[in-house]
Amino acid sequence: MTESTLTASPADSTGPGDPRGHDDRLPPPRAPLSAQTWREISHLLANLPVGVIGFAYISLWIYAGVLLSVTVVGLPLLALGLLGSRLIGRLERARARGLLGVRIEEPSPIRRRAGRGFFPWLWTALKDPVGWRSTLYCFIRLPWGVLTFAVALVSLFVGWPALPWVARGLTNADRAMVRGLLSPSDELEYRVAELESDRGTVVDTAAADLRRIERDLHDGAQARLVALAMGLGMAKEKLLEDPEVASRMVDEAHGEVKLALQELRDLARGIHPAVLTDRGLNAALSSIAARCTVPVRVSVELPARPAPAIEGIAYFTVSELLQNISKHSGARSASVELWRVGNRLLIRVCDDGHGGATLTSGGTGLSGLSERLGSVDGLFVLSSPADGPTEITAELPWRDRTDG
Predict the structure, then answer these.
(1) What is the rounded distance in angstroms from the CA atom of residue 176 to the CA atom of residue 100?
(2) DSSP 248
């Protein structure tokens, strides 16, 4: 028998893949954490310093405000503290947007239309629901920040396999907290408060208009009618004694009647002009433009007539602006444009005068006009650089005439 030499084949070897041997290869590398997970971890670790700063801030201003509430500086301090809480809420929304991907609209700014001055501002600021919810958010962030910081730190060094799930679970609670306390979810409540303030503006405006009408009647037409009655009484006494003098007195009384009628017509036009009711904004605005001391170009491009209330507000807005141009602008020409965009009626009044008008300019009444437009969900935008020109844009909600 011939002895043959046996050669080991690869299949007979005890390499790394042989179950009889030992596998000395390194285990496959773990998949790295995603970028979103690292952002969530960063957010959780930042919760502690952010919570400490926010809690220290609200503790300081609430304690100081309550302690000083018996003095004149306590309530203003509370109001300023709420404004600071609003700022913290804005910063926290930005942090949640950058690290957690939570995109929340900014709450509406504080608006004060109930009146001008310090006390209306103070009352509005103290009732600000956005500021108080931001304060509550800062208050609960400290214990939550301690918890999330501790859990994230331990998971980062000890519980690595579970870290993505831990980070996602904790930041989901953060997301819910931000949405619940820092989002403009109270817009309905704010809207109710804003409508209450607007109601005050409307009531004040109506009362001022009634006082103006009463004053105009008392000092104008009523005084002329009293003088007319006295003149006719004297003419009656002179009728038999001196017919010629009586005739002159009747002629004077006739002139007073004409003046009284003109004043009554002007007063009625100021309440609601007949041309507006009969022919609409184009004819009514052309009529007041013709009485302006400055040449005015009028352009009205409306598909239909708006509701009478909106039509009246637009008319008196343009009327007051043209009066301002006549009295204060020093302009050589002006223009009035009205058009509709969607559900808004837009008004633009421009002049080439010396400019420099502001909402607080004495005697122009622009501030009151802005408040009146705001009370009906309108807008009032003024652009008037020092050397002119002046451009005022107003917006009103459009309502069809059939809506009343």
Answers:
(1) 11
(2) H
Least confident of 45-59, 215-229, 246-260: 215-229
Cα Rg of the chain (Å, integer): 38
Q: Which helix (H) or strand (E) holds 380?
A: strand 379-383
What string of DSSP letters covers 12-30?
GS--TT-TTS---SPPPPP
Distance, in Å, from the CA atom of 270 to the CA atom of 262, rounded to the nearest integer, reads 12
Query: Homologous superfamily of 274-403 in CATH?
Result: Histidine kinase-like ATPase, C-terminal domain (3.30.565.10)
Task: Determine the pLDDT at residue 186.
Answer: 53
Torsion of CA 380, 384, 388, 394, to 10 degrees: 0
Mean pLDDT within 330-356: 92
Length of the chain: 404
- Whole-prediction pTM: 0.45
Q: What are phi and psi of 286, to 5 degrees?
A: -65, -35
Question: Angle at CA 83, nearest 5°, toward 81 and 85?
Answer: 70
Where are the chain's structural domains?
35-185, 201-271, 274-403
Distances (CA, A) of 138 to 29, 92, 294, 352, 402: 41, 10, 58, 52, 50
Beta-strand pair 344-351/390-397: antiparallel
Q: How far apart are CA 150 and CA 18, in angstroms?
A: 46
Closest CA to 381 of 336, 373, 333, 344: 373
Alpha helices in 273-355 (DSSP H): 274-279, 281-291, 308-324
Question: Mean pLDDT over residues 268-296, rounded?
Answer: 82
Q: Taking the domain 201-271, which CATH number applies? A: 1.20.5
Q: What is the pLDDT of residues 19-62, one digit of tens each?
A: 444 444 544 444 457 888 899 999 999 999 999 999 999 888 88
- DSSP for 304-319 reads S-B-HHHHHHHHHHHH
Which one, of 280, 275, 370, 283, lies nearest residue 320 by Cα? 370
Position 336 scores a pLDDT of 95
Q: Residue 11 — very low, low, confident or very high, per pLDDT cuts 50/70/90?
A: very low
Q: Give CA 256 to chain center in angstroms.
A: 50
Is residue 129's pLDDT more than 50? yes
